[in-house]
Specification:
The complex is a heterodimer of chains A (231) and B (236). Chain A has 231 residues and is α+β, with helices and mostly antiparallel strands. Chain A contains 5 helices and 17 strands. Chain A folds into 3 domains: 3-56, OB fold (Dihydrolipoamide Acetyltransferase, E2P) (Beta Barrel); 68-144, OB fold (Dihydrolipoamide Acetyltransferase, E2P) (Beta Barrel); 148-229, K Homology domain, type 1 (Ribosomal Protein S8, Chain: A, domain 1), CATH 3.30.1370. Chain A is 22% helix and 34% strand. In chain B, a hairpin with a 4-residue loop joins strand 8 and strand 9. The longest helix of chain B has 29 residues, at 202-230. Classes of the chains: A alpha+beta (231), B alpha+beta (236). The A-B interface holds A 9-11, 13-17, 38, 40-44, 56-60, 62, 88-90, 128-130, 155, 211-213 and B 29-30, 47-50, 59, 62, 102, 104, 107-111, 139-148, 185-187, 223-224, 227-228, 231, 233-236.
Chain lengths: 231, 236
């Protein structure tokens, strides 16, 4: 009979025994050694049926296929662009994936995306050597003009977006800003300066209090209180 | 000559008071502080990040780079000359080797994890404090690890076997002194660092290792507590 030694949503440190017994399975962030299930990173233990997995609390962004991310152009080559993904690896975007426009042979690619431009793109492939291919073909994928970029903890992005985007939509409406949230922890905000500030402050608040329940209500209250003061 | 009592009055198998905290450096990806008596270590972890120069890159797995640095006025004696020295280079090297067995960097080919260990104040046992801080900081950085690493120094002063030697004991004038820093993976009880300065008998070494492992278990509890405390409120 198996014995689960942690509570659901309890913080576990690497090397900690989460459960003993063969009828429990290790999920992401855990491994088996003999009878034991052991944590292999710092995270929240989450028990789902027979599996125990760890939800990461910290760490850099690791690129994943189908993630929508915000990237910065760091190099322009003959047939594509190299992008900084806010992770340990840079991404490559080929000419073919960049635009549906016709690009003449030998054209100067900087007229499409120049060095230092920020773009929203989607990861199409990540190899074992962490070579990343991105595309800009898809809804909402574009070059970002104006506005400002802030950096947040990539592990808190799901909280900032909320269920079906509820949280970010709320901020967009209250602060009258355009907001794009990248899975890699970069967020683009565009609006009136004071509104931008309000959006940034509320995002920082979410980041700080991401572990508390009833966060949506709190942010709603915060936006109402501070939004009025600025008008 | 016998060594009857320790100068600060603690037991022979007792460590100095320990304090640990995680998340002390905001800009780092992971950070930790570890104080044992008057030895203070701060560790900051950056990465996995892009590695340059390119010839250092390993396409099989990420690499770990450790940097141990004693601050100029950290020790009680002379001012330490700032920058690297033969000693700091050696300690950086053994720290790296002590931490690598628990780390899994297979997921990060061609990249590097940098660990910077700074010691604003030291009074013996600095490499052990550095390893303790670094292992907490690595866990805080969200890296994949088999276990934490706990380190402590053990040794022999005159005829007594001790845990966690302080400076007065390390430099005990009238008698034989051996100083043995060890690092242990607490769950498997495997040793990842074992150095020795001085001489002890084989049986004594075995006894010392047992004492060291026991002290490491106490340190492990402190490290675990510090790591959990950072995310304390998550536990709702």
């Amino acid at each position: 009979m198996s014995n689960i030694m942690v509570k659901d949503k309890e913080i576990s440190v690497p090397g900690e025994t989460l459960a003993v017994g063969m009828d429990v399975l290790p999920g992401i962030g855990a491994y088996r050694e003999g009878e034991k299930i052991i944590a292999k990173r710092l995270g929240l233990a989450s028990i789902e049926g027979r599996t125990i997995k760890l939800i990461p609390l910290s760490g850099r962004y690791t690129p994943k296929t189908y993630d929508t991310i915000i990237c910065k152009v760091i190099d322009v080559g003959f047939n594509g662009w190299r992008l900084d993904t806010n992770s340990a690896y840079s991404a490559m975007m080929s000419m073919k994936d960049a635009t549906s426009e016709f690009i003449a042979r030998g054209a100067n690619l900087t007229q499409y995306y120049d060095l230092g431009d920020h773009i929203v793109c989607k990861i199409v492939n990540v190899t074992s050597q962490k070579l990343i291919d991105v595309t800009m073909k898809g809804p909402g994928l574009r070059k970002l003009k104006g506005g400002r970029i802030i950096e947040v903890d990539p592990n808190k992005v799901p909280r900032i977006i909320g269920k079906q985007g509820s949280m970010v939509t709320m901020i967009k409406d209250a602060a009258k800003c355009n907001i794009v949230v990248g899975q890699n922890g970069l967020i683009w905000i565009e609006g009136e300066p004071l509104n931008e500030l309000l959006a940034i402050q509320s995002i920082r608040k979410i980041e700080k209090e991401s572990h508390l329940s009833g966060l949506t209500e709190k942010i709603k209250e915060y936006l109402e209180k501070n939004g009025k003061a600025k008008e | 000559m016998t060594y009857k009592q320790r100068i600060d009055g603690r037991g022979f198998d007792e460590t100095r008071p320990i304090e640990a905290k995680v998340g002390v450096i905001q800009r780092a990806d992971g950070s930790a502080m570890f104080k044992i008596g008057n030895t203070w270590a701060y560790a900051a972890v950056y990465g996995p990040r892009n590695l340059h120069p390119k010839f250092l890159q390993d396409p099989q797995k990420g690499i770990l780079r450790c940097n141990y640095n004693m601050m100029p006025f950290s020790s009680s004696g002379e001012r330490v000359r700032p920058g690297g020295s033969r000693r700091s280079k050696e300690i950086s090297f053994v720290t790296e080797k002590a931490l690598l067995p628990v780390l899994n960097l297979d997921e990060y080919p061609n990249s590097v994890v940098d660990v910077f260990i700074e010691l604003p104040q030291t009074e013996a046992g600095s490499r052990c404090a550095g390893i303790c801080a670094a292992s907490m900081a690595l866990a805080d950085a969200g890296l994949e690890m088999k276990d934490l690493v706990c380190a402590v120094s053990v040794g022999k002063v005159a005829d007594k076997l001790l845990v966690d030697l302080d400076y007065s004991e390390e430099s005990y004038p009238d008698g034989h002194v051996a100083d043995i820093p060890i690092a242990v993976m607490p769950n498997s009880e495997k040793i990842t660092l074992l150095q020795m300065d001085g001489e002890v008998k084989k049986e004594e070494l075995m006894k010392l290792l047992e004492m060291g492992k026991k002290a490491c278990m106490d340190i492990y509890e402190i490290q675990k507590k510090a790591l959990k405390e950072k995310y304390h409120e998550v536990d709702v």
